[in-house]
Amino acid sequence: MDGTAGVHMPKTPEGRPLGEAYVEFASEAELQEALQRDRNKVGSRYIELFVSSKAEMHQVRPPTAARLQVALEPPASPRVGPPLQR
Prior knowledge:
The chain is of the alpha+beta class. Strand 3 (40-42) and strand 4 form a beta hairpin. Strands 1-2 form a two-stranded antiparallel ribbon. 0% of the residues are buried. Helices cover 27% and strands 12% of the residues. The N and C termini lie far apart (61 Å). The longest helix has 8 residues, at 28-35. It has three helices and four strands, in the order E-E-H-E-E-H-H.
């Protein structure tokens, strides 16, 4: 893979990084090589690596702002009063 093509970095609805990344590898050998860096540092950052699936990656992604807005809207209250005129 070329650099960042297989790197997914989920963000909050406000656009801030969650502090996690999901990386897709082209081969099992690349995965095993990456796992050798578990509990080490990349630059000044301590990292832990876990094997995961695409399904798990999609579950962690936060909802989009549109979905969040719909989820936060109170349910519509039933209409009380005379029937609507058509």
